[in-house]
Structure formats: structure tokens, C-alpha cells
Amino acid sequence: MMFKGLMAKAAKSVWDSTAPGSAPPETEATHDAPQSPEETAEPEITAADLGIQLPYEPGEGTSCAAACRCRWQVEIRWSPEHASNASFVTWVTASDTDVCPDCKQRGLDWHDVFIRPEPGQG
Prior knowledge:
By secondary structure, this protein is an alpha+beta fold. It has one domain (2-21, 39-117). The chain is built from 4 helices and 3 strands, in the order αααββαβ. It has helices at residues 2-18, 37-40, 47-50, 101-109, and strands at residues 71-79, 84-92, 113-117. The protein has a 3-stranded antiparallel β-sheet with strand order 1-2-3. Strand 1 (71-79) and strand 2 (84-92) form a beta hairpin. The chain is elongated and about 40 Å long. It starts with a helix and ends in a 5-residue tail after the last strand.
């Protein structure tokens, strides 16, 4: 069941990246019984998945170092400015009072930053 759900998500992802604004084709998985939350959660896209080199990793060059709880969030979405799907990144902080000043600044500097049009688009 999990494999079928993953295949349906992969097909939808390909469809979404090639036909913005179009409805995805029906898949057999859409007619199955409800899936568990683990199976229905969207897999998180990482910079490594896309071959994108980001300037630093969590904790690298920050005062919180190995205790860093921040992360990169990568999103692929339609960019009207580039007339294609594009990659955007955001530095997501832990959003509490324990965020170090370095990570707080990165959160301001790296909020929804355009990285590149996606290859094969536009």
C-alpha cells in the first residue's frame, strides 16, 4: 500500500512540474481506502535532492553550533516572473526565545529566496 501511495505522489509531482495549473490525472491510489498519516505526508524536498548547494548547514558558523535546531526549507512552485517552476529556500528557525542571533539573522536574510528555475522548465 505504501509503495502505491509513493508512486501516486511521484506521478503527481511529475505532472505538477510539467503542467502548472492543470489537474493531475486520476490514479488508482485515489480510489483506495484512506492512508495513514505517514503515507499521506508530503515528502520534504531537500537541496541535495535537487543538486542545490546552499551556503551553510545548520549550526555551521553560528553561535549555537551543534545545538542548532534550524533547517533549510526548499519549495518548488510556479514562478510567474520566470514563467516556470522554480526553487525557493527559506532558513526556518526554531521560532522560540532560544534561537541564536546568527540563526535569527539567517532567517531574515533567507526568507523565500529564489534559487533557480527548475531544469527542463519554461
